Amino acid sequence: MTGHFVEHVLDLLNPLGPLGRRRMFGGHCLYLDGIPFAIVFDDTLYLKVDDSNLTDFQAHGVHDSIRAFEKNRSLTISYYEVPPDILEDREELHSWARKAFEVALRAQTKKRTRIGTPTKR
Prior knowledge:
Blueprint (H helix, E strand, L loop, with lengths): L2 H11 L5 E6 L2 E6 L2 E7 L2 E5 L5 H6 L5 E6 L2 E9 L2 H4 L2 H27 L5
Antiparallel strand pairs: 1-2, 2-3, 3-4, 4-6, 5-6
């Protein structure tokens, strides 16, 4: 993976706000306000997906999520590849990235609620 593509993506997404990045899965995880919403792996951008934005990806022919590997097991995570035509249209890319960030926020809220909720006995 080239660092040039990661820098290019960071430049494209800069208008969203201050972005952070961390090495992850052999690529980079991108953060906005400390919330992970995108992954750059093998010169490809992936955005966080749930039912609210899945149809955007499907309408562009993207039907599979990224696969990750952890300790000899394969995991499917809810990040889908951004189609090339979306990468070339800054406004559209920003719209997709904002949706992915909203997905990530909802997932974070669900996670916190689940962790903070006492179990009934």
